[in-house]
Structure formats: C-alpha cells, structure tokens
Amino acid sequence: MDINEWWGLVERAREAAGDRADDRDPPDDPLPGALTDVLAGLEPERIAAFAVTAADVTRSAYRWPLWNAAYLIEGGCGDDGFMDFRDGLVLLGRETFTRAVADPDSLAGLPVVARMGRGESGWIGYESLSVPIAEAYRRLQGETASLDVAVEAALRDRIRPADPAGESWDAEDTAANRLHLPRLAAVFEG
C-alpha cells in the first residue's frame, strides 16, 4: 500500500474521532473504533496491505531516542510498552509521528504530554494497531486466520532490526536526558 494512501486512511479515522483524536484516554477512546470502521470499507486484500504497511511504519520508529522519550513520558517503558507507544504515536497522525521520529523532544509540545507531566490523565500508547485491523477484516471475512497468513507471508523476508537505531543513553540519567531531550526533561524531571 502506498504510504500516502496509508496515512490518508489514518487521517480519515482521526477526522471521524473529531476533537478526541489527539487526546485519547482509555477506555472510551474513539479512535480505534473509527479506524476499524474506515478499514472495514476496504477490500480484505487492502486491509492486509494496511497491516503490512503498519508494520513498516512502526518499525521506522524503532529508535533509542524515541524509546527514551517514551520512558520519560510514561515513567518507564519496556519492550511491550514501546510497541504500544509507537502504535499510539501512529494514531496521532503523520505530522506528529514524523516529527517525533526525527525529533523525539518535539513530543513535549503535545497537550497530552504537558498534562501527563503535571500528573494528570493522558496516554499516547495504544495496545495494538492489529486490533482494529483484525476487527475490520473479521467484519468482512468472518475470520482473521487468512489475514494473519497474508501479513506473515508479506513480512517474512523483511529484515527486522535486532536493536533500535540511533544513539542510546541511560533513560534514568537526568543529565543525559537534559542533553538529548531537554524539553521533555524539563517537563518530567523538573
């Protein structure tokens, strides 16, 4: 699936979610349902193509600086948490996602991050983009096994990085965070 088409589908879901698209809190997050509805309007093969592109997009964010930003924002972040963070970052839209991958410190400018820094409610992560994808496919096909097979086959020959890209530092090192993520460090470390 063309990347512009892919991001266009995400944007259609964001438009359907309205003013809650950038500022979601579970359990009543409208964006996953909106994405399910958008994807359910596609042919099953296109839903599978969306899933493959989603894997590529989230893999592009597999970077140490972004992981350390997630660690600051969420007060800790392991492997599963970073997967959730990247999936949720996708749901914030192309511009926010692209900017955050290039400059994780830019996340300090998001209203939800400012609230989280004050100890108020907020969340960037999302459990898994595979949930709305699978639900949309299930609506059309009545099953998801063929989706799993198609996506696995498409991704089989792709090389998955063993480690995140970019410079790594100890996310609990205040001085390093202030050097690499000064705006986020000011929000979360004072």
Rg result: 17 Å
Kindly state the number of beta strands. Answer: 0
Q: Can you count the helices?
A: 11
**Quick one: biggest sheet?**
none
Shape: globular
- Overall pLDDT score: 94
Instruction: Give the terminus-to-terminus CA distance.
Output: 43 Å
- As a percent range, the share of helical residues equals 55-70%
Percent of residues in β-strands: under 5%
Which stretches are poorly predicted, pLDDT < 50 over at least 5 residues?
none
Class computed from helices, strands and strand pairing: mainly alpha
H-E string? HHHHHHHHHHH
Q: How is this structure best described in words?
A:
The protein has about 190 residues and is mainly alpha-helical. The chain has helices spanning about 5-15, 30-40, 45-60, 65-75, 80-90, 95-100, 110-115, 130-140, 145-155, 175-180, 180-190. Helix 2 packs parallel to helix 8 (about 130-140) and helix 3 (about 45-60) packs antiparallel against helix 8. The longest helix has 17 residues, at about 45-60. The N and C termini lie far apart (about 45 Å). The model has no long low-confidence stretch (mean pLDDT about 95). It holds the Pfam family DUF4240. This is DUF4240 domain-containing protein.
List the defining traits of the structure above.
DUF4240 domain-containing protein; 190 residues; mainly alpha; DUF4240
Task: Summarize it.
This protein is mostly helical and 190 residues long. Helix content is 63%, strand content 0%.
